Amino acid sequence: MGVIKAQEADIAVLGRLMRAEAEGEGELGMLKAGNVMVNRVRADCLDFKEITDVNRMAFQSPGGFEAVQKSYFYQHARDKDKRLARRLVQGERHHPADNALWFFRPEGACPAQWWGQWNTGRYKLHCFYSPLASACPSVYSTY
Question: Of 9, 65, 68, 125, which one has the greatest count of Cβ atoms within 10 A?
């Protein structure tokens, strides 16, 4: 049983999006970016109330991921990408993205806040941001 509903097509989309957003940061970087993606499907709060599946998460507009506008997102999902995506759908979490709903790649240091959300840490080039538990308790729930 996964933490979100995901069929094989969803696993492929999640894997492609993780790869497109964070492949340069290795498997762990892809997993951390993927945590944000899975969290957005789970969240049911803030900008993610209508995000109930992987496709809606990947193609959310506005507020979605830039990678879906790039040709490299549309490459076939590799076995490795799908394997990593399955791990996240099964509930694997990685700090500082374990409860994060956003990440971005700044030019320098991570700002303490980004669009009013608090920084939970950095991994390589990406800074991760989580909502307050009171604003989005579902993203903090245990499985």
Answer: 65
Contact 20, 28 (CB under 8 A): no
Q: In 10 A of CB 117, how many CB atoms?
A: 18
Q: What is the CA radius of gyration of the chain?
A: 14
Between CA 95 and CA 64 the distance in angstroms is 21
Question: Do residues 58 and 5 make contact, with C-beta atoms less than 8 angstroms apart?
Answer: no
* Angle between helix 79-89 and helix 8-22 axes, rounded to 10 deg: 110
- Give pLDDT tens digits for 15-40: 999 999 999 999 999 999 999 999 99
Query: pTM here?
Result: 0.97
The pLDDT value given to residue 142: 80
Element (H, E) at 117: strand 117-123
Q: Confidence class of residue 59 from pLDDT cuts 50, 70 and 90?
A: very high
Give the C-alpha separation, 115 to 117, whole Å. Answer: 6
